[in-house]
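Re: beginner question about structure tokens

> Can someone show what the tokenized structure looks like for a real chain? I only ever see the sequence side.

Sure, here's an example I had lying around. Input first:
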Amino acid sequence: MSRAFVKEQDGEPEPLPDRPISSHPNIVTPEGLAQIDAQLVDLQARHAAALKATDRAALAAVARDLRYWRARRASAQLHKPAQTPSKVGFGTKVTILRDDGRRQTWRIVGEDEADPAQGTLSYVSPVARALMDKQVGDVVRAGPSDAEIVAIS
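And the corresponding structure tokens:
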């Protein structure tokens, strides 16, 4: 049998592929920058624990995540939103009223801090793009229906 088809059993875990990094600018809110810093602190502690335990699989996973978050920290562009915004922009909170009467409120944030279930949308998401630079009273396409912007803060 050819050695080309035999997997070496040296105890080394398969290397994990790097996490993909967005091609969009890494714009972050002050809270988003703090989240990145907290991730790095946590990962450094996990890395030390994996080293102490000589857990190669955990080391590989933590190393991959450390590479990702260090790259995101290095490319972070801090953006502080206006105190009293008149238009929807990065860092603003916007409330829309849908045709069916539902009100939805989101804050427009960076990609790594976005969590729609928690009321934050990435600035590159389709809904956030539709809302950008709009004012109270403007009607936008938000998903499958139209919605009116009723508040910006």
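Each token stands for a local structural state, so reading them left to right follows the chain. The chain has two domains: 24-78, 93-152.
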